[in-house]
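[READ THE FOLD]
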Amino acid sequence: MSNLAGSSQPTRPAIAWIGLGIMGSPMSENLIKAGYSVTGFTLEQDKLDRLAAAGGTAAASIADAVKDADVIITMVPASPQVEAIAYGEAGILANARQGALLIDMSSITPQTSVDLAKNAKEKGVRVLDAPVSGGEAGAIEAVLSIMVGGDKADFDEAKGIFDALGKTIVLCGPHGSGQTVKAANQLIVAVNIQACAEAVVFLEKSGVDLAAALDVLNGGLAGSTVLTRKKDNFLNRNFAPGFRIDLHHKDMGIVTDAARNVGAALPVGAVVAQLVASLRAQGDGGLDHSALLRAVERLSGAQL
């Protein structure tokens, strides 16, 4: 088997990448830039063309992409999509070779990751759950936080790959642990965006210079990566999706359900989950999660 230790080694693993969306495309391209051979599959032809233009290889199917891969990386929207690409005759587990390492970087339920690892082991495939935080910008800049669940030996093998994708890379525990930490991440991010959105509306209605106010707030204890990343979205009302409300709605469902299962109360998180759901119901699901500002504006009397 090829050595997975990373850029310092003379040989690198052949990588199959399944799912070339907002996150998957720049992430796979960063692996190509780092010198990895990447064969990709996704449902949209233009995304396959983009991969090929970046120096990767477009596959005709999942089976075609994974059959010769040392490492298979998946980045799809939710648990149903992970299950759809992993299982069945045309799926990853039926077509991956013995000993391959499957790294699922999607954000899904912890239980889905646990089940995937168990089913993959029966096929001789090792699994890491490795969801990420940092959004589209973090993916492009290769500064993602990567929270990993699985065996330490597999994590150590994959470290070189993770280093090409992110900056903060941590093994959080056994299978499913990465997803649990990602759920907590999404809770914190959603509540933070909501607080920022409420502050923006309050500041504007008070007649304050919003740009100046956000600058000084971000320099103090109220500052955050969320405010740094989303400040321009708030100022310009630019809600082009870096991370869609639809996906954050899915993630808030994951964290509220998982918290209920372990007996953890999420009083503020539950309220923000409902605000995300209401924004989606109003037709804003395709916008960036910074569009929580639109929900606060509506509640404050704006006609949007």
Strands lie at 14-18, 37-41, 57-58, 71-74, 101-104, 126-129, 132-133, 144-149, 166-173.
